[in-house]
Amino acid sequence: MDKIVIQGGHPLKGEVNISGAKNAALPILVSALLTGGWNTYTNVPDLQDIESIKLLLAHLGARVESDGHTVRIDAGGLCEPEAPYDLVRKMRASVLVLGPLVARLKKARVSLPGGCAIGARPINLHLKGLSLMGADIDIRHGYVEAEAPRLKGAEIYLDVASVTGTENLMMAAVLAEGETVLRNAAREPEVVALADVLSRMGADIHGAGSSVMRIRGVPSLKPVSAPIVPDRIEAGTFMVAAALTGGDVTVCGCVPGHLGAVIDKLRLSGAELAIRGSTIRVTRSAPIQSVDIKTLPYPGFPTDMQAQFMVLMAVAGGLSIISETIFENRFIHVSELRRMGADITVSGNAAMVKGTPFLSGAPVMASDLRASACLVLAGLIARGKTEVNRVYHLDRGYEAMEEKFARLGAVIERRPV
Ligand code: EPU
Questions:
Q1: What pLDDT does residue 44 have?
Q2: Which of 139, 299, 328, 379 has its CA 20 to 30 A from that of 360?
Q3: How large is the C-alpha radius of gyration of the chain?
């Protein structure tokens, strides 16, 4: 297993291109299951999670071809209703096949994903929605078994605005009989990106990006060609890195409109941001100020940026309170940051971060994707050498992260262990 070795203390300078969004690409690739014929997706990021979903789609009977950042999928031969444990346990987002499988094959058997490092992450709302649409649902031997001769439109209230829950139900509803109304739907840009692709396939969807979505079922969908939207979390991660190192970085090919909360908090922390079209230039000459953060569903501050922002606050000039309201265990990076000299106390869902003048390099590891990214950021400013272990977490969600940082002037390399 590889590790990332960083020699801290080099300000980042230059331009970085943002890849396609993992969390948009995953449901969009899965949406190919809703039709026969070749769908073509461009700007698909080269990530381990994308490899996992391609394997699952192939297992279900789809033909999957890749060429660089282009992926083609034809699910005309979709025949297998089962998503097995071995594939689902590697990536929770595999549960997204549930809705499309019931819509196309009238039945599905999908391994329950179980909890993960950041929280219990139940899928009760995905199941509640499918059940209201007329599916018979059973949980047996660790699998969800769902069956419905034809799904029917329904009024569904989501107790929590779940991102993949909204996506799963949207994909089930597009081929259902009649109208489905999703109340308290997730408003994340990735949900809107999926709705755009489904609409281009012929689906009748209104209200994507708002908390009430109306989906009128259609008899069939047609294949589509679509690009994947830029990854707002990758963009935000590089923006925080630029502010952290006091560099001068232009983040290219992003959608600034998707980054409102991150832009606001970065400005409050003393960074200067110049937004022009699809680029954001981040510089900082003033010292870093402490700001409070509370993670919320979009358009609030993203939980997927919480760990990275905490590094900035760890070297800020005062006290910052970071509240995590989405996942119950998303402070796993705190103990590793402490080992690097950060002064952070956790109480319930709040972390009190008292800025210190510097962090010092150390061997570290984390057990989730964004926590690993935060440790790379910490390594970029720490005195001395930092080794980030368990790099497979980073490879799940950041395309060539160390190469992108190296091109910006960081002293960073991947080494086999
Ligand atoms: N929840 C329920 N019941 C459900 C579904 C969710 O109680 O049926 C709860 C969860 O336990 C959590 C909250 O609702 O407390 C929000 O979870 P959500 O379902 O929105 O998360 P998700 O869809 O599983 C996606 C992203 C995550 C991101 C979250 C929040 C994908 C593939 N994953 O997860 O991304 O953190 O939304 O924005 O889209 C990452 O990329 O590192 C990552 C974890």
A1: 98
A2: 328
A3: 21
Residue 243 scores a pLDDT above 90: yes
User: Considering only CA atoms, which residue is closest to atom 2 of ligand 1?
Assistant: 122
For ligand 1, the distance from its centroid to the CA atom of residue 13, given in whole angstroms, is 34
Q: How far apart are CA 142 and CA 113, in angstroms?
A: 9
Encode pLDDT of 110-131 as tens digits.
Answer: 999 866 788 888 999 999 999 9
Q: Which residues line ligand 1 (CB under 6 A)?
A: 23, 26, 93, 119, 121-126, 160, 162-165, 186, 190, 303-304, 326-327, 369-370, 397
- Model confidence over 136-191: pLDDT tens digits? 999 999 999 999 999 999 999 999 999 999 999 999 999 999 999 999 999 999 99
Distances from the Cα of 229 to the Cα of 24, 25, 44, 65, angstroms? 7, 8, 9, 20
Domains of the chain: 2-19+230-416 (3.65.10.10), 22-227 (3.65.10.10)
The answer on pLDDT for 34 being more than 80 is: yes
CA 304 to CA 322: how far, in whole Å?
13
Residue 392 has a CB neighbour count (10 Å cut-off) of: 12
- Report DSSP state, residue 35: S
Which atom of ligand 1 is nearest to 161's Cα? 20
For 387, residues 6+ apart whose C-beta sits below 8 A from its C-beta are 3, 4, 5, 6, 362, 363, 364
Closest CA to 320 of 354, 283, 282: 354
Number of C-alpha atoms within 13 angstroms, CB side, residue 49?
Answer: 26
Rounded to an integer, the average pLDDT of 104-109 is: 97
Mean pLDDT of the 340-345 span: 98
Q: Quick one: 124 exposed, middle or buried, by C-beta within 10 A (0-12, 13-18, 19+)?
A: exposed
Pocket test for ligand 1, best of 22, 121, 132, 399 (most atoms within 8 A of CB): 121
Residue 59 pLDDT grade (very low, low, confident, very high; cuts 50, 70, 90): very high
Question: In terms of Cα–Cα distance, which of 4, 7, 12, 6 is closest to 237?
Answer: 12
